[in-house]
Amino acid sequence: MQQMINGALTTLTPEQEADFVCGGTATLAQVQAVAVNQVNQGAQASRQKYITVIAGQETTYYLKQLEAAALVNDPSATAAKYPYTFAEAAATGSTPAALAATVNATAAAWTAVNVQIESLRRGAIVAIGNATDIPTINSLVNITWP
Hints:
2 strands
């Protein structure tokens, strides 16, 4: 959450945001909940730098990845077996084999980045849950995302 402070747009710490939302002094559990939300928002923003985040797109990526992985070892590939791959290849002027290679390479690159994002996200959330004081919680949301 951001707020204007002394004329500057400032990102609030989990404590500040929880105090604002609660209308007073927030409890440790309330600050933890806000911190987890801030971490999840950071992970989402990082992922949005690499993938298209729209309804249904994650499933589409997953299905395309499944098709591409299978197609490279299928000498009798058809549009009926691999509808996403054949349709996109036709739409982009590519071949199903070339498109499958691109999808496989892109999936591998994305996995490497997403593993970093997810490990940072999960590590921070566990640390926030284990934190026993608010200054520690405030420090745990300062993540440098890939």
